[in-house]
Write a structure and sequence with these properties.
The protein is mostly helical and 173 residues long. The protein has a single domain, classed as 3-Layer(aba) Sandwich (Rossmann fold). It has helices at 2-10, 24-31, 36-39, 46-51, 64-73, 86-96, 117-128, 131-151, 156-172, and strands at 58-60, 77-79, 100-102. A 3-stranded parallel beta sheet has the order 1-2-3, with helices on both faces. Keywords: Glycosyltransferase, Transferase. Belongs to the UDP-glycosyltransferase family. One of its GO terms (molecular function) is UDP-glucosyltransferase activity.
């Protein structure tokens, strides 16, 4: 409910993918405002969404796959870690790469750590509106380009993976 209200209050257009549980119909009123789903209807695959030029930001739990997808797409992030290494990934995005803003989660939690709609609204606005957002978007695009070059033929990741395969081949034959 707090995520929904914060996203709506930010005034930004968004795509929100939520998996429906078996008790979805019964629980709907508990986690989204009445009429929210109808007002905000739509779905598309995450990688395709992130790669679209119209995407200005990504709210993420900071799982490594999602983080890499956003980084290589050159998209700034609102970080919302929940468990395990996600907190380290958040620090990497917000403090090292400086292409994200934390929503304020401080400890492991399945319930969102009590984050309120105002924190969601503020974080979304920070990556979408103003000079700081433009600077972050520029850094995100630059890091994304570096990531894409790394996996191209003869890029650093391509070459390292090729070297690993060759090393394994030498030891296995």
């Amino acid at each position: 409910m707090e995520i929904a209200m914060g996203l709506e209050a930010s005034g930004q257009q968004f795509i929100w993918v939520v998996r429906k549980g078996e008790n979805y119909e019964k629980e709907e009123a508990d986690w989204v405002p009445i009429g929210f789903e109808k007002r905000m209807k739509g779905w598309a695959p995450q990688v395709l969404i992130l790669d679209h030029e119209a995407v200005g930001g990504f709210v993420t739990h900071c799982g490594w796959n999602s983080t890499l997808e956003a980084v290589t797409a050159g998209v700034p992030m609102v970080t919302w870690p929940m468990a395990a290494e996600q907190f380290y990934n958040e620090k990497f995005v917000t403090h090292i790469l400086k292409i994200g803003v934390s929503v304020g989660v401080l400890q492991w939690s399945r319930e969102g750590d009590g984050i309120k709609r105002e924190a969601v609204e503020k974080a979304v606005s920070q990556i979408m509106v103003g000079e700081e957002a433009e600077e972050m978007r520029g850094r995100a695009k630059a890091v994304g380009e570096m990531g894409r070059r790394a996996v191209e033929e003869w890029g650093s990741s391509y070459s390292d993976f090729d070297a690993l395969i060759e090393e394994l081949r030498l030891h296995c034959l």
